[in-house]
Amino acid sequence: MLFNNQSFALDQNSTITGDGNVVDQDMNIDVNINDQGQMPMTSSNFMDSQNPIVEPVQERQVHRTIVHQVPHVCPIRTRVINHHIFKHTYCPQYSCCEENVVCNIDQGSCCNFR
């Protein structure tokens, strides 16, 4: 890879066992810096003589949850059904009447005794 005329070579080898632990790891890094005729690097002018190193872009993901209220009209009709039940009951209502029977005993008239 090459950043600002600086070449980097990275070689890394690892041996991983079955439980995920790294048992053996080898890493080789080669760095070549091309200063293109600028001042020799000393500890005082090293940062002044070099362009800044632009690192690779790191991307962050932000997951947001946005709740949208969507009103729905749900018509509900109530129908009232009246059931009329006629239960017939019978109550005796007593009444009383009186009847007079007249019986005449006629033993004859005065004319009969003569």
Question: Could you explain how this protein is built, in words?
Answer:
The protein is mainly beta. Helix content is 4%, strand content 22%. It has one helix at residues 46-49; strands spanning 2-3, 6-16, 22-33. The protein has a three-stranded antiparallel β-sheet with strand order 1-2-3, with no helix packed on it. β2 (6-16) and β3 form a beta hairpin. The chain is rod-shaped, with a radius of gyration of 62 Å. It starts with a strand and ends in a 65-residue tail after the last helix.
Biggest sheet strand order reads 1-2-3
Query: Whole-Å distance between the termini?
Result: 176 Å
Task: Give the biggest beta sheet.
Answer: 3 strands, antiparallel
**Poorly predicted regions:** none
What number is the mean pLDDT?
75
Rough shape? rod-shaped
Fraction of helical residues:
under 10%
Based on secondary structure, the structural category is: mainly beta
Elements, N to C (H/E): EEEH
